[in-house]
């Protein structure tokens, strides 16, 4: 959080960190744009794959992913200053959308 307040940078919140009250407060108070990269459970499941170990998804992967998204969606909604639907975007398109927003080109 410190880097967000002191210089231009892009940060990522580690898995579950946004659920910590102090982290959420610091993110809100930073004044920095917070992007929610919204994805459906079916697309997230396809992108995450089943071959890599995913500790939060052990067991019934689909059910656990849906439950995780249901739990975190209200948190993401409350923190985000911009919501981007990434279901059909590739990495380059997403990077361009974020860059456009940060440069004031996108509304």
Protein described:
This protein is mainly α. The protein has five helices and two strands. α3 (41-48) crosses α4. It is globular, with a radius of gyration of 15 Å.
Task: Briefly characterize the structure.
The chain is built from five helices and two strands, in the order ααβααβα.
Q: What distance lies between the first and last C-alpha atoms, to the nearest angstrom?
A: 25 Å
The structure class reads mainly alpha
The low-confidence parts are: none
Mean pLDDT: 79
Nearest-angstrom radius of gyration?
A: 15 Å
Coarse morphology: globular
Compute the number of helices: 5
**Total count of strands:** 2
SSE sequence, one letter per element = HHEHHEH
Order of the strands making up the biggest sheet: 1-2
Biggest sheet architecture? 2 strands, parallel
Taken as a percent bin, the fraction of beta residues is 5-15%
DSSP helix fraction: 40-55%
